[in-house]
Each structure stands twice: as structure tokens, then as C-alpha cells.
Amino acid sequence: MVLPGTGIYTPADAATLLHERAETVRRWAFGYRRTRVSGPTVHPPLIQTDLPELEGQRALTFVELIELLYIRAFQRAGVPWRLIRQAANVAGRMYSTDHPFALRQLYADPHSVYGAVQEPDGSESLVQLVGHGQHAMWQMVKPYLEQLEFGGDNLAQRWWPMGRDAGVVVDPRFAFGAPIVEEVGIRTRTLAGAYRAELPAYGERAVERVAWTFEIDPRDVQSALGFERWLKAA
């Protein structure tokens, strides 16, 4: 059973939001097996997942989706698979959590993975979780931080994939975690589908027609359309 507010994403759903291949998402989340001359090699997943397999299908929660967002950032920064897994183990023990890569405290740089720690003077700085404890520049991780909103437990609870100004949020408390236009709480896919349905008859006025149908501002329709185009742009 999926608890309310958990969110649920198939690997394909997660891949679309992350602009990644579904197979890559499956490997990160569930691990994989590779056959070599010496025999099969099992590569364990990079995160812990909470939802059981159902009729051969696997799914992810919102917190796990955010962990994959961070892993994508780590890999694009050049952090090796081995180092990501090692850092997850260190961070999990350090912060007593099964989902360290969804914590506000965790970030990355091109060489390693870091956690936020309190200095003696009360300030906060980033320290290498794996390696020699070198400090990283806060500016390097700030863009990721600005896309996310964290709860009192420091776990991510909302995500603005295009930034907050775009008006589209992924929030597991609404629409099972599907992207919605924040102002009106309607799925972007729903508004984009309505727009496509009205386009043949209304042409340039299709946006206004959809806005009238749903009793929302045309800007909300434009936000949904912009987000759906962004999803397909990768």
C-alpha cells in the first residue's frame, strides 16, 4: 500500500522528470547484473527503495525520485558509481537515515560528495564525506538547493524542476506526485491534453478556451504547456 503523500513514480515517469533514460533510472534505483567471462557480476542499487515489487513492476517514492535527482547531478559532475555508493553509506550513518541523498545537507562537487556540518562558531560548511575532508564552495551546490523545499525533518518535500518562477511543482501530497501548476493544483498533463483537444477548433484562442473551461488564468495554461515542452526537450 502506498501511503498518502508518498508519491509514486514508475521508472519511466522518473526518467522523464529527470531527463534520463528509463534503463539508467532502473540501474540507479534497483541495481543490475552484468555477465562477464568470469561469471555474472551484481551491481547493487545506489539508493534504498521502500515500495515492494508488484507483479514484476517496480516504482519509486518522491523521496527516492529526489535521491535520483542528486545522483544525476553527482554523475554529471564526474563522481564515480563506487564513490556515490560509499558516500551514501557514510551519509546514511552520519545522519541516521535510509535516504541521505534527499537531505538538505547533501550536495556534490566534481570530485566527491559532501555533507553540511556545524562549525564550532555555529556556521555551516560543506565537508567531504569521502576523502580528505576538504571544504567545497557553497555556490557550487546552490542551484540544486533552490529547486527544492525541505520539511522539518530536512527531507525534500517539494520540487520545482524548472525553478520556482515557472510555477510548476512536484509535490507528493497532490495528484500522487504528478507535476501540477502550483497556483491551481491541476496536472500539467491534463491542461496540455485539453489544449491539444481544443487547438483544431480554436487555434490561437485555444489557451483562452482551456482557461475558461477550467476557470483559471491563461497564464496557468501557459505554465503547463511550457513545462510539458520542457519535459520533451531532453
Element-by-element helix/strand order: HHEEHHEEEHEEEEEHHH
What percent of residues are in strands? 15-25%
* Overall 3D form: globular
Whole-Å distance between the termini?
Answer: 33 Å
Instruction: Specify the oligomeric state.
Output: single chain
Characterize the biggest β-sheet.
3 strands, antiparallel
What's the tally of helices? 8
Q: Please give the number of β-strands.
A: 10
Structural class: alpha+beta
- Helix fraction by DSSP (H/I, runs of at least 4): 25-40%
Query: Order of strands across the widest beta sheet?
Result: 3-4-5
Write down the overall mean pLDDT: 87
Q: Ranges with pLDDT <50 over ≥5 residues?
A: none
From the alpha-carbon coordinates, what is the Rg to the nearest angstrom?
20 Å
Could you characterize what this model shows?
This protein is of the alpha+beta class. It is built from eight helices and ten strands. A hairpin with a 4-residue loop joins β3 and β4 (113-118). The mean pLDDT is 87. α1 (11-18) crosses α2 (22-30), α6 (188-202) packs across α7 (206-214) and α6 crosses α8 (218-232). It has a domain at 160-234. It has a three-stranded antiparallel beta sheet. It has a three-stranded antiparallel beta sheet with strand order 8-9-10. The chain has a two-stranded antiparallel sheet with strand order 1-2. The chain has helices spanning 11-18, 22-30, 62-76, 81-95, 142-146, 188-202, 206-214, 218-232, and strands at residues 32-36, 39-43, 106-108, 113-118, 124-128, 148-150, 156-159, 168-170, 179-181, 186-187.
